[in-house]
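We include the entry.

. . .
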Amino acid sequence: MLNPIEGEIFYIDKPLKWTSFEVVKKVRARLRKRLDIKSLRVGHAGTLDPLATGVLTICTGRATKRIEELQAGVKEYIAHLRLGETTPSFDLETQVDATYPWQHITREQVEKVLKEQFTGTIEQVPPAFSACKIDGKPAYKLARKGKDVEIRAKTLVIDEIELLECGLPQEPSLVIRVVCSKGTYIRALARDIGEALDSGAHLTALRRTRIGDIRVEDCLSVDSLLDRLETEEMVSPDRAEQERLEREREKNRAMARARKAQKQAEQRARTPRQSQL
């Protein structure tokens, strides 16, 4: 039985071109209608760009308090890169703005650069087209207006980076697997890899395959989750509130018992023993 008000955590395989917030809105709307309530907290842990797919964590009710904890999990991605071209957003959201030679790059160079420059603790400047705040405003809103955006570098950890496929020398394409810490922008990683190879690069596809112990194979599609929320039995808002109040009462009773036990212990400590009289 689901208890969305007390809190549920769902794992979604986010579809291509959906924003993370669009998934949240769909889930919230279905739950509000099913429970016949006007408001319900629903949030996501770890944004995925619209052009990315894969594991997206959705929290409801009081489980939204765990979002920061859930975001901290190690993440794994499969990223497709195209060498020799850059875009302002570092992915396909914007058009190619510059081209560079790539014929000099070999598979051996790629593997060497990944191992020596992109493994362990690194510094990364997030993309201008990101949700990083500049004077309280998301950077992407400023970037889309053509304004210059300056973002400070952040310290990240790349636990693993592996070259899965290499189209060189015929095609300037790479597929890499990345295991990394919270806050890593794979688009920015593509940019930096291109620069390290004396060329340019941008992301052409991205799939988040794992967050912590949750793999994409464990996830539901959006439609499957919405169907589940329509048919599975749920704890009603009234019952959820009754259970919450009972937990509060039990918590208060436990605290009262603990205070009483502490006072008794202090009293015994102050009372002289018979043998000492």
User: Anything to note?
Assistant: The two ends are 63 Å apart (CA to CA). The chain has three domains: 9-71+216-235, 78-198, 239-269.
